[in-house]
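Project outcomes to date are best conveyed with an example. Our students and postdoctoral researchers have been running inverse folding experiments weekly, and each run begins with a structure described purely in tokens. The record below, which covers 54 residues, was selected by the lab manager from last quarter's runs and is presented without edits.
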């Protein structure tokens, strides 16, 4: 039984999966923020074009 506990404590595969999950989440947040910013700026461009049309 002690051997099983020692193996569980030394096992780092789960930690690696969690780290990859956190990295993926941070990348997703960065993409969402970038797309939101670009969308806001693009809306402003289209609004200025709309206002310039007769």
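After processing, the design step wrote out the following sequence:
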């Amino acid at each position: 039984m002690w051997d099983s506990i020692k193996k569980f404590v030394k096992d780092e595969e789960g930690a690696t999966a969690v780290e990859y999950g956190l990295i993926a989440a941070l990348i997703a947040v960065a993409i969402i923020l970038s797309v939101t910013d670009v969308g806001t700026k693009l809306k402003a461009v289209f609004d200025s074009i709309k206002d310039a049309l007769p």
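Helices lie at 2-10, 13-52. Residues 13-52 form the longest helix (40 residues). The training component of this project remains on track.
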